[in-house]
Amino acid sequence: GCDSQMSVSEMSCSESTSSCQSLEHGSVPEILIGLLYNATTGRLSAEVIKGSHFKNLAANRPPNTYVKLTLLNSMGQEMSKCKTSIRRGQPNPVYKETFVFQVALFQLSDVTLILSVYNKRSMKRKEMIGWVSLGLNSSGEEELNHWTEMKESKGQQ
């Protein structure tokens, strides 16, 4: 399972770019996340800090977005998932929500954390704005570097 806790302090972190390019000319959607791993407790904390340049592709108004976090094992099977609350009508939403996953130290190199950003359009309809993955199956070099920094930072976000 995963616990959500609201973060009150501003923390510095690396920035990761989404794997989905904007369909319009202009800025690419980005998401800012902070990672922390405590080897003693086996707690992996992922703070979803904020997003920027989120667009509603179906309409000319800012999207209603949330971020879904999914932790996968080395076989690609879902171990845990959770999501942020919805931010309504914000192209640059601030989430400041932290999620905690239990991951044993020996598993840390074998898991993948996927962050998917969705635009919630109506009761049952949603569309993916973009996604990024960190860990074993990182979606890029920047994401892999962020994961490596987290593993080497000894409890610092």
Automatic annotation (TrEMBL):
<dbReference type="InterPro" id="IPR035892">
    <property type="entry name" value="C2_domain_sf"/>
</dbReference>
<dbReference type="InterPro" id="IPR000008">
    <property type="entry name" value="C2_dom"/>
</dbReference>
<feature type="domain" description="C2">
    <location>
        <begin position="27"/>
        <end position="157"/>
    </location>
</feature>
<protein>
    <recommendedName>
        <fullName>C2 domain-containing protein</fullName>
    </recommendedName>
</protein>
<comment type="similarity">
    <text>Belongs to the synaptotagmin family.</text>
</comment>
<dbReference type="InterPro" id="IPR043541">
    <property type="entry name" value="SYT14/14L/16"/>
</dbReference>
<dbReference type="GO" id="GO:0005543">
    <property type="term" value="F:phospholipid binding"/>
</dbReference>
<dbReference type="Pfam" id="PF00168">
    <property type="entry name" value="C2"/>
</dbReference>
